Amino acid sequence: MKAIWNNQVIAESDNTIIIEGNHYFPPESINKEFLKSSDLRSTCPWKGQASYYSIEVDGQTNIDAAWYYENPSELAKGIKNHVAFWNGVEIID
Fold first, then answer.
1. Domain 2-92, what fold?
2. Which end of the chain, N or C, is less packed with Cβ atoms under 10 Å?
3. Is 79 in a helix, a strand, or coil?
């Protein structure tokens, strides 16, 4: 699977974890040079608190387009620090 935004591969892995229709990419598969920390946080009732990244490619920014769980609940421990995408990021096989 690949996560692509603005014609750039942001993440690539054959080992994503699918939860609620979202592909969570393992930390080592992320091209971190494109991710910038965000102050946004949200809470999932069963996964815990999510933190966000904005994606920056070629001078363009996709605000809060990636999220991850640094300290997920016990039920979601398998996606610790895995990154999922939305807001125009294409996920292709």
1. 2.170.150
2. C
3. helix
